[in-house]
Protein: ABC transporter ATP-binding protein
Organism: Streptomyces edwardsiae
Amino acid sequence: MSNTAEESGPPAWRLLLGYVRPHRWALLGGAVLSLMTGATGLMLPLVARDLIDDLSDDRAITGALLLMSALVVANAVLGALGSYVLRRTAESVVLGARRSLSSYLLRLRIAAVDRSEPGDLMARVTSDTTLLREVTTDSLVGLGTGGLTLVATVVLMGFVDPVLLGVTLGVIALAGTVLGVIVPHINRASRQAQDAVGVMGASLERVLGALRTVKASGAEPREERTLHDAAQESWRQSVRAAKWSAAAGNTAGLAMQIAFITVLAVGGARVATDAIDIGTLVAFLLFVFYLMAPIQQVVGALTQYQTGSAALARIQEALRLPAEPAAGPVRSPETGTTPAALAFDDVRFRYAEDLPYVHHGVTFTVPAQGMTAFVGPSGAGKTTVFSLIERFYDPGSGVITFDGRDLADWELPRLRASIGYVEQDAPVLSGSLRDNLLLGNPEADEGALTRVLKTTRLDGLVSRLPDGLDTLVGHRGTKLSGGERQRVAIARALLRRPRLLLLDEATSQLDAVNEAALRETVADVARTTTVLVVAHRLSTVTMADRIVVMDAGRVRAVGTHRELVTADPLYAELAATQFLATAG
Ligand SMILES: Nc1ncnc2c1ncn2[C@@H]1O[C@H](COP(=O)(O)OP(=O)(O)OP(=O)(O)O)[C@@H](O)[C@H]1O
């Protein structure tokens, strides 16, 4: 994802307000508590001045001392309560952002996922959202409460001595100009640091997703270098951000020291000329001292905001990726439904604008019920047919109809609820065997589960496993064999009781016994359901009711095995070489 997208979106503060809006009352409560904390602190110099006056006039100081003690205790209690409320609210803002972002990512269009790095998307949900925590408390509240305390302090200082206030404001204005130069640097560095965290996430996902291959290829040192480079880049940019943040913090600190010394010098001169008394000077110096906290708070808020707005830009970038419309879950399966009919009419499709067409006018019809096999050389566009039926992508032109109705007119969840899809690489998700089987139909009863386990010959495996169906299968099902993974994927699709079963046959071979059993199962299913299979085995094509021969994105022939062997030279060649080679 490019950095340029961030420029076209709404400003970061508006996005932040969007996340904060649901928690505005809690945030306001926390801010009020912080303000009250500030106010109790602000009253202390005034009471101190009274105390000094009482001392100079030989009056009792008990009242002033008691008031000061009460203020100190109130300050501590209100401060703790305020910080808890704010922190809790900030966590709620993070939660809201994580929820909306993760829901959105699940709805992403497959084309958008093709263009993204999953590891980078993960970093946006985990790492970038975390940065919103600080931006909510430190920035929003810091800017609000710090700003208000600052204004209140300045007003009070004006009452105490306007001349000394002028001196103080002069120094602060100078520091403000320097800060204006520093702050944009923090934003840039923070953005680059977060981008580097995203790159690191992507590299980690790449390596951990294929660790066996990486090890078998002896590629650890190179992959290690890529990971280290990304970590180093994140460090470099974070250090750059830290450098500018430190410069900002110290500029504010230095300004206050200068203000303190200047006030002391100018104030001392004013005391010497009797323009003000010593109590006023002490009170003013205490105000300068108290000014430090809100100023540091406002500067901290501004610097923190830069980091937060960089993270917000990355979150927003993910939220701008094309997604499918949000829709409620559909009950699956729809009981008592009939097999589906399907047709492609002159479908042209390419995966992206800058890629060549994969389908150049594909046309075929599949009646309800029975088995249709798709065959053709590698890259002919067979799997793409399935991706278009599932509406992972939409065709560039032409029409695909499901039960005579344009796919584009189907509500996506309803369409997908009618289809069972077994991908070629039979993905199995981390979790238990049961979780995997029920993924497509969590409401399937034990009876259906037992039947499907039997037809896919998984019952033997389940009875062998110590925890049976509750056995954990590991990341991507690594604890299962390739053949077992395939059978789990088929069982999962069958449990959905689909109206249309899409089976992308694995090129790797199942053992003969399991293959024969699965063939029987698929033939059985085809008696009540429409089955489409991308076939890599002769045994599959010979039992198909019709075969669609695809070549270079076109349908070149349709017929039965017997018809095609004589009528289509490509099919004859495939049957003689590719299929026979895997027929066993
Ligand atoms: N997500 C994608 N993005 C870009 N190009 C893709 C994508 N998926 C597939 N392709 C390209 O589209 C073409 C057709 O791919 P497809 O998977 O449909 O072929 P196939 O006939 O199923 O091949 P095989 O028999 O090897 O599985 C190939 O050239 C492939 O490189």
